[in-house]
Write a structure and sequence with these properties.
Layout (H helix, E strand, L loop, with lengths): L11 E6 L5 H13 L4 E6 L8 H9 L14 H5 L3 E4 L13 E4 L10 H22 L4
Parallel strand pairs: 1-2, 1-3, 3-4
Helix pairs in contact: 1-4, 2-4
């Protein structure tokens, strides 16, 4: 059976934060969970941590999403170039900017060093923003 070509109309979203251990991991997990194969999802960090924040893993598990096996990834120029929408979360000037890409900056508290009680409201705000983004990305043209 031949491989089917990828659908060019599938939007691609890249979530970027500094450590790729909290906010961007939560956003990518929510979008993957909610969108399925309707959106290509990536996440990365400008200075990735060794592991995903355990409080973030626990908070996402409360929402029924398991990200325990996720590993922080380094931000590459290729990841930005192959994305339609790039959403930054506090990575500042380290995110490369290319013409023709849509950039959004989500100002969200950093869950690093926070307990699960502090992570929950960040998680809930990320879920709200991801749901809004998904509704916008999947509107029929």
């Amino acid at each position: 059976m031949p491989d089917l070509p990828s659908t060019p109309s599938t939007p691609s979203v890249l979530f970027v934060c500094i450590h790729n251990a909290g906010r961007s991991q939560m956003a990518a997990a929510f979008l993957t969970h909610l969108a399925g194969d309707r959106v290509q999802v990536r996440s990365a960090g400008s200075a990735p941590a060794d592991t995903v924040n355990p409080a973030v893993v626990a908070a996402m598990a409360e929402s029924g999403i398991d990200i325990a096996a996720e590993i922080p990834k380094v931000l590459t120029v290729e990841a930005v170039q192959s994305s339609d929408v790039v959403i930054t979360m506090g990575c500042g000037d380290t995110c490369p900017v290319f013409p023709g890409k849509r950039y959004l900056d989500w100002q969200l508290p950093d869950p690093a060093g926070q307990g699960i009680a502090a992570v929950r409201p960040i998680r809930d705000e990320i879920e709200r923003r991801v749901r809004d983004l998904l509704a916008e990305l999947t509107q029929t043209s």
